[in-house]
Design brief:
190 residues; alpha/beta; Rossmann fold; 5-stranded parallel β-sheet; 4-stranded mixed β-sheet; 8 helices; 9 strands; 19% strand; globular; binds adenosine-5'-triphosphate; binds the ligand Nc1nc2c(ncn2[C@@H]2O[C@H](COP(=O)(O)O)[C@@H](O)[C@H]2O)c(=O)[nH]1; AAA+_ATPase; transferase; P-loop_NTPase; EC 2.7.4.8
Length: 190
Amino acid sequence: MKNNKYVFIVTGAAGSGKTTVANYLQDHYDMHRVITHTTRLPRPGEQDGVDYHFETPSSLKKLHLLEQVTYDQFQYGSSLEGLAEGWEQGKNDVIVLDTAGAITYHQQLGAQAVIIFLTVTHMASLAKRMTLRGDKLSAIHSRLHSKEYHRDLALPAALKGIAHVVVNDQWKNTKQQIDVIVRQILSKKN
Ligand SMILES: Nc1ncnc2c1ncn2[C@@H]1O[C@H](COP(=O)(O)OP(=O)(O)OP(=O)(O)O)[C@@H](O)[C@H]1O
Ligand SMILES: Nc1nc2c(ncn2[C@@H]2O[C@H](COP(=O)(O)O)[C@@H](O)[C@H]2O)c(=O)[nH]1
């Protein structure tokens, strides 16, 4: 879909802070948050239509999705309609995806897809953050043992030289790095 707006894709390991960064982009840069679809159950405090569109396996099958992945046994997917919603309001979009989804967006949208890959210095802090977030121990255990969790700890080869890599150890530093990236991208067209 050709227009002069971007979709900022926040990707990286589970617990690395993707949702936190997406919320920051929504609040500070008035971006439109694309709500994706999943068959996993809501975490404490998560709301349908706000954090995700929560689906059953059969309701997910009926959707027209731009891309769809399996992550830790559950299905996730995002639609072109979700992207168009923000762009039709004249806004840039922000979406949270796993690295497989980020690669698909890069392939489909090229430079219109701005990819931010989050990582942390000490991988042990990821599980700590999930615990502090209130995730069930069984969910954390399953996540840490999934092949997708291990895959997303490192920047995939297909995104090398494409994604902006941000180390989210200290939130204050992260915000500064995100500000630099967003201003650099938005200054290209404005
Ligand atoms: N720089 C940081 N320092 C400490 N805690 C952080 C930092 N950034 C985010 N957090 C916290 O870590 C937890 C995980 O963050 P968040 O939910 O944004 O991660 P995520 O990458 O979206 O995770 P998931 O993929 O599992 O949904 C949250 O409780 C969040 O408040
Ligand atoms: N490729 C896609 N990845 C997605 C989508 N929605 C979320 N995600 C990613 O899945 C994992 C697991 O999410 P969680 O909320 O259960 O921790 C995480 O990396 C998300 O970024 C999507 O539509 N497509």
